[in-house]
Design goal:
With 148 residues, the protein is an all-alpha fold. Helix content is 64%, strand content 0%. It starts with a helix and ends in a 15-residue tail after the last helix. It is a multi-pass membrane protein.
Amino acid sequence: MVDNHHKNLATFIHLSTFSRFIIPFGNFIGPVLLWAANKDKSEFVDKHGKQAINFQISVLLYAIIIGTISVPFFIFKFFRRLDVIDFHGFHDFHISLGEPSPLLYIGGGLGALAIIGFIVELALIVKASLSARDGLEYKYPLTINFLK
């Protein structure tokens, strides 16, 4: 049986990831500080802290991968018509609504994937917080276990 104090600590560890909307890298700082200060007090708090931190690291890794995949498409599209010796800048720049670029589809698809991932991330954090509040263990899906 887990007491209410430990349930609250585990819940706040998960909810502290929302501090990123106020503090840069708050989604790492908040959980790490709460987990490090309380990991020895309860195995329940330790497990939830590791899960929250592992999930945030995994999400960062997935975002870096998506960003790395998408950047070359933008670079090649931008530099495709530039002449290295005779630079004309944006003189030849135009938008054709009748014939969309493949960049539109690729960038739009990756952008939609990022938005869906963000919404799923928020929902999983709320679900983990509710599980911690109820005294249940929670394992985030698609999480790489950096801390074991």
